[in-house]
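I trust your eye. Have a critical look at both lines of this record:
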Amino acid sequence: MSARAISTGSISFGLVSIPVKLYSTNQPAAGISFNLLHKKCNSRLKQQYICQKDNETVSRDEMVKGYEFAKDQYVIFTEEELKALEDAASKAIEITEFVPAEKVDPLYFEGAYYLGPDKGGERAFRLLGEAMRQTKQCAIAKHTARGRQSLVLVRPFENGLVMQQLRYADELRPLADVPIEDTDVKEPELKLAMQFVGQLATDSFEPQKYEDEYRKRVQEIIDRKAQGQAVTIAPADAPKGQIIDLMEALKASLSQQSKAAAGSKAPQPAEPEERKPPKRSPHVPAPEERKAGGQKRARGGKG
């Protein structure tokens, strides 16, 4: 089924403008969500907004949006004003520079969208994507939509483009805020750790090998409960204790991984060959049979 565009825009650089459509990269209903119910009757609960001053429930048509510029002081915006501000945004994906993809740390990545050409932009869309593939570059751009200007990265993906939202530098907490002790790395431990990494190393990332095991388990329990079956959920494993001897832990990890790898590569037992019936030994005539046979041959010779 063809994806449905969630928005439109244009990629612009220099005097070039390419009309594009934005598509979600997420599959619908990918997660499992639970509803809040009344414990007494299992009826679904409805969210309500309560005015703290009047202590009364406020309906949707009585709500307005405001920005708090000082303690308990707000500037109010009407829906018309907010819509006009959003419409005033160009929705342009304005490319400011091209950089090698590996120079942008994934730490800056947020949500991602597929980009596809809108009517009339097919040729320029394909040209931009191919130029970035050949030069191994991706585009840094500014994108304004829904009342916010975002920093984005546009990169080629298969035969299309992906727009990756980026965090601004001031939105990223510095690693210096995280307490990390400076400790020495011992050479024997490093060699064992590198050996372990080498055993698990692969040439490429294959996401199709992985699935959400937690979601699958929860879905199975939901299905059983919906059928009226009694369900017993086993408690989670106790957390592992603190590592006392790092070298012993690394050696045990290597041994465990080696056994797992050997088990996955072990040759399968051969199919048992079809057993043939034993050869029958040649029939040895008894003395009586030999005597009778000789008499028959003698009579035949006289006739």
Observations:
- The first strand starts at residue 7 and ends at 13.
- The first helix runs from residue 79 to 88.
